[in-house]
Structures are given as C-alpha cells and as structure tokens.
C-alpha cells in the first residue's frame, strides 16, 4: 500500500486521516514509493484477521467433532443436539443486521476484537458443565466392575446377590436421581454456543470489507484469498484436536483410569470433550488482542480514490462531507445512517439474480449443514469406527479436499477469465456432479450388526417389528432382566447380546474389560444346544465393512472437492450482481438468511429424522429416554443420504433459474446500463467486461462456517 511515511506516522498517532489536497497527495505519494514499509497497517490487519479466522474455524469444527460425545455425556437424543448446534446460528441472527450495516461506519477492528472476547467466553462456558455435573456413569453389570462380590448375570435367584450390595447400589441410584432431576446441564452448552455465534458475527462482514476498502485493488483478492486459505487450517486442527480428546476418557485426571471398564470402541465411551473447548477459548482470547490496537481508518490507496468500487463506508463519508474540506466527520449519527436502510433492503430484494441465488444457497446449505453435522455419527454407526478415528479422517482427508476445491475454483475463474455467466455455469456444474457422486454412497453401506432381539432373533433369523418385546426369549425366560439396560457382550457365535443377563449367562470370570461370561444359554450355536461363553463389548461388523469404509472415504473426498469448486464462482456471482456500495449489507443479509433458514433448522430436522432409525434407546438414571445406543444401519443410510440428496436436487433447480435469468439479461436487447448508471444489472455487456477483467476473481468464497462443510 503506497502512502507517504509522514502520513503513515500521523495516521498511527491519531487513528484518523486528515484531508489532503489530491494533487499534492499524488505527487508526494509518487515520490516516496521506495520508503513504504512492508509491515503497513493493512498487512498487520491481514495477519490478525487470518489468526481470527483460524480461531473461529478451529472452535466451530471442534464442536462438530464432539457432537456424539455431547450426546452421550448429557444422555440426549440427536434432535436436541441439533438444537444445541443451531444455537450458534441463533447468536448470529440476534445482531448480524446491526453489525453488517452499522458496523461498517464504526470502529471495525475494535468491534472484531470485542467479538473475539465474546466468542472465547462462550467457548469456556461450553466446557463448564464438566466441572459441576459429577463423574460420568455408564451402564455396566456389577461383575464387570472391579469388585470382589461374585454375582450371577442371570440373577435367577436374587438371593445370590448380597443384600447389602443391592441396597448400596439402589441408594447410590436414588441419590444420583435427586441430584440430577433438577439439572439440565446441556443448557450451558447451548448458551455457550449462542455466545460463540454472537462473537463470531462481525468477523467476516467487517473484516473482509475492511481489507477490500484499504488494500490496493490488485492486492485485495490476494489478501482475501490468504485469509480464507489460512482459515482452512483451523478445521484441520479442530478435527485433529477432537480426535486426540476423543481418545482420552472424559474424567481423565479425576478418576483412576484402571477402573474404567469401557474402551473407545464402546458406544457408551465419552472422550475428554471439554478439554478442547478450553484450548479453543484461550486461542480466541489471543486472537482478539491485536484488534484493540489497530486504527479505525487506514489511508486509502491512490489507485482506489476515484474507483467506482469505493466502499460503502467511504461513500457515506464522502457524501456527508462533499461540501466540507476541513476535516472528516468524527462521529456518525445512527439516525442518519438508518434512513437509507429500507431503500437499500428494497434494492437488494428487487434484484432477481440475488434472490434466486439466495434461495439456491439456502437450500444447498440445508443439505450441507445437515450432512456435515451428523457425518461423524454416520461414520461411527454405519462403519463401526471410533470417534477418534472418525475425527482424524475428516480432519486429515476431507478438509484439505475442501480447501483444494475452493482454491481450484478461484484459479479456474482467474486463468480462463470467466465472467458472471460462466461463474453461474461453473457453480451449477459443480453442484450437479457433486450430488451425482453422492448418489453412489447408497451402495457403500454396511449391513446391520447381528444383535439378538433387535436385528436378528435369538435363533439367528431376522427379528420381528416389535423389537423391545423380542429382547426376551425362552433362553432367558428364567432370568430377571431389564429391557432398558445396554451392556453388550459378544458371544462366540458372532452375535451381540444387549446384556449378559439377556444372553442367559450363569457365571462370569475376571473383572473390568477382561470379564468372560460362561454358561450363556442364549449363546449356544445353532447346530448345538450346548451353552457357550461371551466377552465384554459388542461384536465387530462384517468382514466387508472395512472395505466399504475405504470406498466411502474415496468417494467422500472426491465429492467434497467437487462441491467446493463451485464455491468461489458462486461468491463472485453474488458480489457482482449487487451495487458496490451495498457489498457489506448484501453479505450480511445473505449470511442472515443462511443462519436463519439453514443453520438453525437443518441440524434439528436432520436429528429428528436420524432419531427415527434408532433401534435401542438408553435409559437415564432417573427414568426417561436417553441417547440412542444402536441404529438401523440401512435406515440410517437412506435417511441421512436421501435427505441430503433431495435438498441438493432442489437447490440445483434454483441454480438453473439463476443461469436462465443471466442468459436473458445478457441478450442484446438488455445490454444497456440502468438509468442510475450504477452496477447492479449483473448482465450488461459493458459491465461484463469489467467482471471478466476483475482481479477479485481469485477471491475465495465465504460460507458461514464453510470450513466444516465437507
């Protein structure tokens, strides 16, 4: 950025710019080009904004990686987890219009700094329940816990269990109920995520427009591309952090790990989900510090002073002071800014290309947000993978594919000098082929695990529709079992049983993870009536499942790349179809619509749909339905992928409509400038050349939390 050293010094000392005669400014600027520092204000802001993008992307992606952990820790269904995830968007909804419209006229760096502090406070709040709700309790038969009391799993005669042990166990359960009945600690997670949404709001609309306003025009696209590229690193670290924390037991540091009788492969396993939020909160605090020392305004580059793409902030100030040549207006009254709000809103919604593209984006983000939110759960349940491995795969494979796709889209736009019409075609083609590839995933699923009484009968045949009643059979009729328990064991016949009691086991040996059950009347092989043994934990999925998981990863990576290629062209289409002084406001409205109509509802109704595929629900200590323990793999695949594809197909139809409107506007009879002479028609020949030659075509797309849309 080319400004004189004298003006640069004056700027940093007063945080303002005194008006300078244009002719003298030009001569002074041209004579001091060699004296400009490479560490000017815009580059400092660029570095600070890149770090903030990294911080917000890390915390956002880490939340996605802990969805299943939160569900199990608080014993809640997927639909409620969807509400928690959507609370981030609600936080954005509360202030996005005010921030995007009024924030451009205020001290933008300090508003971003304040947002970082709020974001960190919300991140810390999410982790707080871990320190107040006591130790995590999971369902385990007493004999699998390190105990000297020998208890028969089948409990044919309740007198086998010492009375004192039963009374003590019941007393602990009752005490736990009294403590937990009046507490819903997941609310703190919801409120924390709400604060995260509020704090994240000003970062994108104010940060990007600040760079676009004060950077040299030929460098603006490069700077914004750098910010978005650095932001991709955030989700990679976020999911890798989620992978690491998922390996650690939730109460690490508070309990003796040798006493833990479940492993990360168990569906009841909960990792140290809270630890990552503490780390992310600290990073957010550090990211916000530099913005408190950055100025409100930067000297505008000489090449941008007469540009038609001047910012709405500069245009506003110039219009208010065009007859005044003494000083800049130091404070702007809100009433004066608000008077143009409704006309600006009417102008945006009167643009058919903007409206159609907005509708296409809303529906597509419903598809992508729902898919990405429950992608870890889908991989865990469909392919039998641990949370740690799932997060590792997403962070190390899928995220780089998204980053490469975004970069490729911008590179294609720049290399082939593609205009607005070409951008619409590229965006449409990307979506079409991406969802076409997604269709192939229907054939890459695993069959249901053989679970006696749920997916197969105790005789090895398919179970009846009434799953709960099918849990009881002649082989366990003499046992006093509960259908609400979930303490799976794997019989030597390869079938999983909901509990040792329901397997009809009469004896056990060992303790903890090494417990072996004997004389299990239901585990006898189908050819023989002899009783057999079983071990703690569910049986592994079929032999074909690891191969299917590999195919799924390959197609998933290609799909992620293909869908991401269309992001940058779509973003360019959005920016080039609105009047230049409405950029920040249009992005704010766009983001608001995505938050309200996609970010909030998509996780909820995806969660409700996924809950309908549950075969076995857990039970809370005080009664009531807890988190799902086992899903119907086939039904889950059809619901998860089917809902994603239906929404994606609808969005493609809107994209076709966008392309049709652009073709119509680019016809010879419509190739005229609008009466007011401003850019906004998005299809005139005179402006088309401007779009083709624009240096901002390399500019990366902004999707709300796009870094996790895989």
TrEMBL record:
Subcellular location(s) per record: Cell membrane
Membrane topology annotation: Multi-pass membrane protein
Matches recorded under PROSITE patterns: KAZAL_2 (PS51465), MFS (PS50850)
Positions of transmembrane segments: 40-59, 80-104, 110-132, 220-250, 270-294, 354-372, 392-412, 424-444, 548-575, 587-610, 639-662
Domain Kazal-like intervals: 469-524
Gene3D superfamilies reported for this sequence: 3.30.60.30, MFS general substrate transporter like domains
GO MF annotations in UniProt: bile acid transmembrane transporter activity; sodium-independent organic anion transmembrane transporter activity
Record GO cellular component, one term: basolateral plasma membrane
Coiled coil: none
InterPro entries: Kazal_dom, Kazal_dom_sf, MFS_dom, MFS_trans_sf, OATP
One GO process term, biological-process aspect: monoatomic ion transport
Annotated catalysed reactions: L-thyroxine(out) = L-thyroxine(in); 3,3',5'-triiodo-L-thyronine(out) = 3,3',5'-triiodo-L-thyronine(in); L-thyroxine sulfate(out) = L-thyroxine sulfate(in)
Highest taxon in the source lineage: Eukaryota
UniProt KW keywords: Cell membrane, Disulfide bond, Glycoprotein, Ion transport, Lipid transport, Membrane, Transmembrane, Transmembrane helix, Transport
Annotated ranges, domain Major facilitator superfamily (MFS) profile: 45-666
Family the entry assigns: Belongs to the organo anion transporter (TC 2.A.60) family.
Protein name according to UniProt: Solute carrier organic anion transporter family member
């Amino acid at each position: 950025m080319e400004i004189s050293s004298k003006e640069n010094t004056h700027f940093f000392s007063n945080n303002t710019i005194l008006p300078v005669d244009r002719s003298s400014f030009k001569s002074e600027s041209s004579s001091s080009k060699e004296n400009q520092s490479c560490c000017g204000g815009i580059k400092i802001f660029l570095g600070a904004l890149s770090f903030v993008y990294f911080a917000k992307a890390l915390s956002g992606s880490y939340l996605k990686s802990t969805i299943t952990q939160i569900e199990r820790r608080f014993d809640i269904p997927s639909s409620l987890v969807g509400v928690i995830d959507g609370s981030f968007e609600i936080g954005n909804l509360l202030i996005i219009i005010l921030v995007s419209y009024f924030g451009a006229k205020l001290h933008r760096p300090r508003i971003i700094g304040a947002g970082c502090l709020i974001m960190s406070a919300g991140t810390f709040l999410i982790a707080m329940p871990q320190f107040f709700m006591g130790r995590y309790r999971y369902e385990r038969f007493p004999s699998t816990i390190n105990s000297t009391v020998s208890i028969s799993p089948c409990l044919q005669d309740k007198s086998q269990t010492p009375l004192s042990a039963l009374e003590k166990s019941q007393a602990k359960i009752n005490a736990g109920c009294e403590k937990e009945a009046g507490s819903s600690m997941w609310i703190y997670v919801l409120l924390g995520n709400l604060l995260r949404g509020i704090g994240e709001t000003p970062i994108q609309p104010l940060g990007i427009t600040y760079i676009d306003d004060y950077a040299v025009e030929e460098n603006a696209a490069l700077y914004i591309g750098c910010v978005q590229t650095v932001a991709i690193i955030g989700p990679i670290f976020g999911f890798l952090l989620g992978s690491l924390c998922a390996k650690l037991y939730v109460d690490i540091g508070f309990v003796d790990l040798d006493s833990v009788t479940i492993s990360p492969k168990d569906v009841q396993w909960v990792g140290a989900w809270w630890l990552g939020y503490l780390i992310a909160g600290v990073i957010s605090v550090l990211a916000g510090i530099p913005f408190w020392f950055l100025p409100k305004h930067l000297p505008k580059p000489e090449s941008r002073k007469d540009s038609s793409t001047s910012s709405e902030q500069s245009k506003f100030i110039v219009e208010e002071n065009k007859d005044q040549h003494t000083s800049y207006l130091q404070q702007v009254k809100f009433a004066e800014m608000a008077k143009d709000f409704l006309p600006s809103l009417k102008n945006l919604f009167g643009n058919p290309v903007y409206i159609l593209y907005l509708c296409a984006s809303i529906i597509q983000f419903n598809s992508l947000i729902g898919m990405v939110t429950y992608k870890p759960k889908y991989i865990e349940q469909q392919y039998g993978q641990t949370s740690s491995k799932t997060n590792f795969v997403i962070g190390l494979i899928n995220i780089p594919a998204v980053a490469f796709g975004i970069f490729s889209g911008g590179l294609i736009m720049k290399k082939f000098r593609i205009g607005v019409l070409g951008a619409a075609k590229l965006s449409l083609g990307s979506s079409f082929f991406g969802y076409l590839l997604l269709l192939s995933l229907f054939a890459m699923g695993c069959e249901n695990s053989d679970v006696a009484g749920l997916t197969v009968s105790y005789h090895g045949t398919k179970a009846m529709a009434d799953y709960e009643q099918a849990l009881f059979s002649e082989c366990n009729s003499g046992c006093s079992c509960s259908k609400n328990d979930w303490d799976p064991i794997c019989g030597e016949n390869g079938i999983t049983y909901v509990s040792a009691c329901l397997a009809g086991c009469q004896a056990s040996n060992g303790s903890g993870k090494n417990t072996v059950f004997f004389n299990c009347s239901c585990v006898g092989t189908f050819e023989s009536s002899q009783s057999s043994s079983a071990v703690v934990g569910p049986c592994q999925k079929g032999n074909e499942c690891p191969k299917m998981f590999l195919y799924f990863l390959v197609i998933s990576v290609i799909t992620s790349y293909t869908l991401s290629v269309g992001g940058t062209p779509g973003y360019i289409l959005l920016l080039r179809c609105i009047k230049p002084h409405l950029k920040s406001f249009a992005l704010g409205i766009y983001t608001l619509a995505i938050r309200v109509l996609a970010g909030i509802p998509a996780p909820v109704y995806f969660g409700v749909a996924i809950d309908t595929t549950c075969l076995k629900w857990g039970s809370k200590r005080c009664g009531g339905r807890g988190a799902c323990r086992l899903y119907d793999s086939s039904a889950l695949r059809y619901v998860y992928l089917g809902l994603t594809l239906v929404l994606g197909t609808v969005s493609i139809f809107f994209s076709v409509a966008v392309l049709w409107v652009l073709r119509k506007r680019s016809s010879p009879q419509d190739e005229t400038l609008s009466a007011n002479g401003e850019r906004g028609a998005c299809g005139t020949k005179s402006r088309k050349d401007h779009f083709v030659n624009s240096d901002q075509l390399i500019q990366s797309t902004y999707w709300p939390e796009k870094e996790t849309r895989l």
